[in-house]
Amino acid sequence: MIVEIITPEKSLFEGESTMISVPGTKGSFQIFNNHAPIVSTLEKGVVTIRKPNDEEINFDINSGLVECKKNKIIILVE
Hints:
With 78 residues, the chain is mostly beta strands. Helix content is 0%, strand content 67%. It has one domain (2-77): F0F1 ATP synthase delta/epsilon subunit, N-terminal (ATP Synthase, domain 1), CATH 2.60.15. The chain is built from no helices and 9 strands.
């Protein structure tokens, strides 16, 4: 999957991922390859990205929005 994390000021991350965990407004959830299309609001918490080499990267966020469509995930955060 291709993942982009974008703030109003800059791009925080762009690259490949095998799993993403996000703090959804109604509870945390994970996105894997070939996930069904989804759009969700995000609340304060941690976005975790697992790269193909199993390295995990964490980003603290205050709020945001995630969109997943055709193995492309865009996360807009504050």
